[in-house]
Amino acid sequence: MSGRVRSTFLLCALVGAGAVALPGVALAGELSTFTLKSGERVNGRVVDMDSDGMTVMSPLLGAVRVARADLVELPGQPAGEPAAAPSVPADPTSFWKGWKWNAEFGLNGSDGNSETLNFRAGLNGKRETSKYDTTVGFSYGYGSENGDKSKDRFEANIRNDWKLTAPWRLFAQGKAEYDYFQNWDWRWSAYAGVGYEFVKNDRTTLIGRVGAGASQEIGGSENKIVPEGLLGLDYTHKINERNDIFANIDFYPALDDFGPYRFLAKAGWQILVDEKSNMSLKLGAEDRYDSTPEGRKRNDVDYFVMLVFSF
User: Rounded to two decimals, what is the model's pTM?
Assistant: First the structure.
């Protein structure tokens, strides 16, 4: 798998409004003209509202999710009367509050002339506040073929981003990995650095990261601590209310010897299947590359199809 990540960003016209009817704001279904800070004007009908914005049905663009921050004026707003500010949810009072979680499971196998089993599961959490973005993740994969183990891998990771003056941020992250089929038993790594928001809105996020840290392989031929750099890129895009795509790549060059390097690339597509149960279908691939595998292949590629339950 190529370590090159391609992404395309299409910027649609955005406008905003509050969760309740404001003085002079067009009622749902009424054709109105919205003026943007960019100077453009958009015609459409309001079909849905919430605390962050609204959905406008445009004759040219179709259903467009709009944000209040991009609006210069509200249609019919009396001159000199400022629009009411939307209520902003308060940050959680405790670190243990405000988390959004999803659990994912995937299983396939065969029985008869050949016996195979492949299992993958994960638990991921995300917490966003006005000052921090925190993510944690746990994943485990197991496979067997004709009774012999073919895969046994566990991974745990955590990352915290401190939001500075946009678009800048600071980050720190850590990871622990176990892999039965590597020439080491465990590998830990930790990094810190600076992040930059190239794009961040209610549909698309593209954040770059530059930092440094170290990793150590335990139970292998070399157990020394290796200083490493980090170059990362995180991309997400909401195609519509049911479809999301994502891609992440992390590049780790060794700093004590400018030859060896590692990278991790992951991309996928998540489809909302059932709104009531918050069940989605997740398809994707992950490539772990090591330029010095010590007798093993450089690439480890996993393909996955999983059910995801959000709560």
Answer: 0.68
